[in-house]
């Protein structure tokens, strides 16, 4: 069975990406490993007193994201594909590549929004970074209209 890493950001294209990954997993006799990477500074805010940490904000956010991951895992399993999930905080590229290595992944499935140019300069593109740095094949699914 092939291990397919599917990073999830809960954006607008999550559903389309998930459906494509399920189809790919069925064709490859694969297991989907969902991963969501939350930022390390999730509970921090800046205000009048400088940086402040609010652990309850971080805990609420993580609980909500874990619930969403559980829902996605159940959806994948409902399609007849084996699935598991992980939520981890850190730098997305590093965490995803580490997870892929730990799972002995055969593929990483990523979405592409079709943006380029100035957007990449300021925001960056995780898909672009993974395709450049991954020793594991990256399947890019177009998610733009």
List the helices and strands and how they pair.
Layout: E1 2-7, H1 14-28, E2 30-38, E3 44-47, E4 50-53, H2 55-78, E5 83-89, H3 92-102, E6 107-112, H4 118-122, H5 126-133, E7 138-142
Parallel strand pairs: 1-2, 1-6, 2-5, 6-7
Antiparallel strand pairs: 3-4
Keywords: Cytoplasm
Family: Belongs to the universal stress protein A family.
InterPro entries: Rossmann-like_a/b/a_fold, Universal_stress_UspA, UspA
Kindly estimate the percentage of residues that lie in beta strands according to DSSP.
Answer: 25-35%
CATH topology: Rossmann fold
Q: Give the SSE order as H and E letters.
A: EHEEEHEHEHHE
CATH-scheme architecture: 3-Layer(aba) Sandwich
Overall mean pLDDT: 85
Strand arrangement in the largest pleated sheet: 5-2-1-6-7
Counting H and I runs of at least 4 residues, what is the number of helices? 5
- Report the strand count: 7
Pfam family, one: Usp
Family: Belongs to the universal stress protein A family.
GO cellular component, one term: cytoplasm
Domain UspA: 1-142
